[in-house]
Amino acid sequence: MSHALTRRQILHLATASAAAFGLSACGGGDAGGGAAGADGESGQITVWSWTTAAEALRGVVPSFERDNPGIKVDVQDLGNPAIWDKITVGLASAGKGLADVLHIGVDYLPGYLEKFPQGLADLSRLGADRHKDAFADGLWPTVLGKDGAVRALPWEVNPLGLFYRHDYFEKADVDPASLTSWDDLIAAGPEVRAATGAQLLGLDKPGTTQDMDFFQNLMQLQGAFYFDGEGRVTLASEEAIQALTVIKRLDDAGLLADTAGQGTWKRLVGQGKLATAPYPAWAVEYLATKFPAQSGKWRVMRPPAAVPGGGRSAIVNSTYLTVSATSKRRKAAWRFVEYALTKPAEINRMFASGGVFPALTSAYADPRFSAPHPFYGGQRVLSSFVDSLGAGAGATHFTGDYSRALKLASDAQSQVLVKGADPAQALKEAAKQLAQQTGRQQAA
Question: What helix, strand, coil percent values describe the chain, rounded to 5?
Fold first, then answer.
């Protein structure tokens, strides 16, 4: 799945960059409002974000400034991955130079809360707890620090779906509704390939990029990840082994294309050589924009379960807005965060401009979430993702050691796909190394 760079792969690269700075400090401001910061309610606040998300936030500024006289907002697009380096360095420097409001991905937020527990403002004392039930299930645990205080609010959520070539499945006489697990897809794959010449999906087999989204998705569908809620290593869990076994079975059956190399995934999709794309909600407009000639040929379904009869919903990534503990205008900054993320009209304005699928559940009452999409043959594709969120999904525990886990898992996957290693043995060795490198215990 290595088209150019996906948003997830960009975050992966940035994680490695941040690791080079060493998330080792444990300071960064006083959560309760110490000398480094202040609770100013007016003046100019600065917001750090990136690309389309930054542009979406700028769209909120006019109405916010109208409704909050005395506060001016400067939204700055730092670019991705440059933003992660700046935030990491700022937190490691006790908050020096940080913006008032920070846009942070789920890849980073848990690590920041672990390594810099006082670096982000305590939003509970500003009233954030009243919004606990306003967002999609599975996101709230991520915003809580070890002290139980809210340190951020959810903005973007990306529920998983399976995009598929409707015309290919129709030509192969395969009913997508019958494909409830990856066992079903592996069984149907040869029929699709025989009828169309397409393989099911693509993956960077040698690991030239850390192409681990699909592996992670299969774990998340089982309610698992590299770490559990106590921070223990679960890379050798039954769920992880099942995930890598599914990938091996796809490869053994000749259903997995190798997408190593810049732009290979995009080229294969453009040539019609891939029948599915297991991607989250942000890909709705991505596919429509990048492959307009294939309009009407794609559809979306709930992701097949990793195990027969298993769960078919997962939140694969999310982003958040937070306030620096060293901000001199914490109340003003919080007011902007709350305004942007808890008002359906504002969150949907940002969704319309930047495609950032909102975490705020009240936003889904907007007609756009039930509207037919022409690229998908008139299917109400956004409704399928809203329904997936309604099925519930557990929190994903990234921790501050995600980049280490990602590298070791990627190596294990490549060993299986390139060298024929046994999934269980490859993951057992990877989990052992992860525990040694991080000082974490392995889960039983």
Answer: 45, 15, 35
- Rounded-to-integer distance, Cα 224 and Cα 238, Å: 9
Element (H, E) at 433: helix 423-438
DSSP codes joined into one string, 76-112:
EE--TTHHHHHHHHHHHTTTTT--SEEEEETTTHHHH
Cα(348)–Cα(368) distance, integer angstroms = 9
Q: Nearest to residue 197, comparing CAs of 170, 168, 174, 176?
A: 168
Which residue is associated with the tokens 């979406």?
Answer: 56
Q: Yes or no: say if 399 and 227 are a contact pair by the CB < 8 Å rule.
A: yes
Check: CB of residue 81 under 8 Å from CB of residue 14. Answer: yes
Q: What is the CB-side half-sphere exposure of residue 387 using CA atoms within 13 A? A: 12
Closest C-alpha to 46, from 81, 25, 21, 75: 75
367: helix, strand or coil = helix
| Token couple for 216 | 């992670």
**Which conformational region is residue 283 in: left (phi greater than 0), alpha (psi within -120 to 50 degrees), or beta?**
alpha
- β-pair partners for 257: 202
Residues 177-231 pLDDT 10s: 999 999 999 999 999 999 999 999 999 999 999 999 999 999 999 999 999 988 9
Other C-beta atoms lying within 10 Å of the C-beta of residue 438: 16
CB 106 within 8 A of CB 396: yes
In whole angstroms, what is the distance from residue 365 CA to residue 332 CA?
Answer: 29
Structure tokens at 91: 């937190």
At 8-30, the pLDDT tens digits run 443 343 344 444 444 444 444 44
Measured distance CA(440)–CA(232) in Å, rounded: 6
Angle at alpha carbon of residue 149, lines to 398 and 130, rounded to 5°: 110
Q: What are the structure tokens assigned to 59, written together?
A: 């769209």
| Nearest alpha carbon to residue 12 among 408, 402, 416, 298 | 402
Please return the burial class of 33, using the count of CB atoms within 10 Å of its CB with bins 0-12, 13-18 and 19+: middle
SS3 state at 44: strand
Sequence letter at residue 186: I
Residue 266 burial by Cβ neighbours in a 10 Å radius (0-12, 13-18, 19+): middle
Taking residue 368's Cβ as centre, other Cβ atoms within 10 Å add up to 11
Q: Smallest Cα–Cα separation from 14: which of 62, 50, 56?
A: 50
